[in-house]
Recover the amino acids of this structure.
């Protein structure tokens, strides 16, 4: 597998993390630089770690993980997105108090968006690709996509105003539904 192909795999895997980053940028427009970097780093690390786990686990657990990956991501993202939608209908003064981007939320999002990368690790193992080359590339690509997506979300969030949280929650729910159906 070529370097370009691994980058394309990284781009494909990073799309869920990018979409969640856009939703976070829409909703949490006052994130500090450290929070933005932490989010992108968490998404990148989990996108790099899951293929490594899949690579090493091989086909031993691949069927089990693949069987429940969609529903797991759907539940996690559905709950987070549903809560964001609910909060978007709060009173205006309450809606401005969207401070809640926590470490736990970041970890839940990072796990939910990286579950499918486990199966990619299994396929990389079957293809004979060096996981020590592929995993860092996937992580770096995801990190970059997440930072860019956060910036896009912030720009659109400023234009959407109070509807940004509703849109961000809807995006998370739709990503969860997509995972459930795939």
């Amino acid at each position: 597998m070529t370097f370009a192909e691994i980058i394309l795999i990284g781009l494909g895997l990073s799309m869920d993390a990018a979409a969640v980053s856009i939703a976070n940028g829409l909703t949490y427009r006052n994130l500090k630089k450290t929070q933005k970097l932490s989010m992108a780093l968490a998404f990148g690390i989990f996108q790099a770690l899951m293929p490594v786990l899949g690579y090493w686990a091989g086909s031993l657990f691949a069927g089990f993980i693949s069987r429940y990956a969609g529903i797991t991501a759907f539940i996690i993202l559905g709950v987070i997105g549903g809560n964001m939608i609910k909060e978007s209908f709060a009173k205006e003064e309450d809606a401005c108090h969207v401070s809640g981007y926590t470490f736990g939320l970041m970890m839940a999002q990072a796990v939910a968006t990286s579950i499918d990368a486990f199966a990619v690790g299994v396929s990389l193992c079957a293809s004979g690709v060096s996981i020590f080359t592929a995993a860092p590339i996937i992580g770096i690509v995801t990190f970059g996509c997440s930072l860019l997506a956060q910036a896009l979300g912030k720009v659109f969030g400023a234009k959407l105003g109070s509807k940004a949280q509703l849109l961000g929650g809807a995006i998370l729910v739709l990503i969860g539904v997509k995972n459930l159906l795939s």
